[in-house]
């Protein structure tokens, strides 16, 4: 008589979302919401520091302002998407991965832009570099939060539950 064991794993995934757009001010009280707002403010302050300088036309200032404004607009649009639950309505789009890649890239770009601005002897550029380094940290924190969420299998808004069920079956056979 011989026996063999067969194991089957069944994974069920349930995503619960409310597929309508609505305003929810509670997002700004969450850690990702606060980090997003801080990044938006730092982008704007760094941009203003360069823009009000007499030397804003220099390539260092133009590069810094390009990084600051693209970060400002992307983060601002994503903040609006979260506030109005657009990310929940379109939950099939991998919002967290998009934000993860953007935030990681923007942390690196801010490191470069702030370093270039800090290397000049212009005080406004050096002030912008300070806010650029702070924005780099903000985007790095946001990227880390998104990385943890992606790794946990979460979605941007709504909830996803995963049920894993294992079934084991032992079969005995008679051999002659």
UniProtKB/TrEMBL annotation:
**Has UniProt tagged this entry with the keyword Transmembrane helix?**
yes
Tell me where it resides. Membrane
Instruction: Report domain MARVEL positions.
Output: 27-151
Return the Pfam families for the record.
MARVEL
Q: What InterPro entries would the database entry show?
A: Marvel, MARVEL-CKLF_proteins
What the entry lists under PROSITE patterns is as follows: MARVEL
Bilayer topology: Multi-pass membrane protein
Keyword Cytoplasm attached? no
Q: Which GO terms describe its cellular component?
A: membrane
Spans traversing the lipid bilayer: 37-57, 63-86, 98-118, 124-145
Keyword annotations from UniProtKB, A to Z: Membrane, Transmembrane, Transmembrane helix
What name is this protein filed under?
MARVEL domain-containing protein
